[in-house]
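Protocol step 4 of 5: obtain the predicted structure for the target chain.
Materials: sequence only (see below). No template structures provided, no constraints applied. The aim of this step is simply to have a reference model before the mutagenesis design in step 5. Sequence pasted as it appears in the construct record:
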Amino acid sequence: MLQRRGLFLSAFVAGVILLGSWSVQAKPSDFTVTAINGKWNGKKIGLRAFKNKVVYMTFFATWCKPCLTEMKQLKRVYKKWKKKGLVVLAVSVDEPQTRADVTPTVKRYKIKYPVVIDKSGQIVRLFNPKRATPFSVLFDRKHKIKKTRSSFQISDMAEIKAEILAELKNK
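Step 4 output (structure tokens):
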């Protein structure tokens, strides 16, 4: 019996130590990257740049067809709701061999919302450690994570719009 308790106590302590290391997380605003398009081109941005805005962050790669489909759909959503406080932030996870394709892809699709290339992987480590594409994170106005999504199909747009609109209504 004492041996069991000792084993249980050891497992409990190990769990507490592990959980403690997991709870040490960077704040969502703890990243800064350079935007590559539009009015943000060349500017350092992070969540702090979008104070009191609802942020829909989408991780994409230029070779990912569902990612590009989502980005095209998000153009309409951003145009419709940016004045209500929506920011769409596209984060490229392209590796060095395809990074040169990012800017031409953004131009070809006429993306008006900010796009960044996560060269160092800092944003991926914070929000998309499995490096899924497409992968999206919806933040409320205080930049608390409200929803994550690890895939995209056109049929998802109604739900995505409803989730974004619900956050835009929360002031």
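Step 4 remarks: The longest strand covers residues 54-60. The beta strands are 33-34, 44-45, 54-60, 86-92, 115-117, 135-139, 145-149.
Proceed to step 5.
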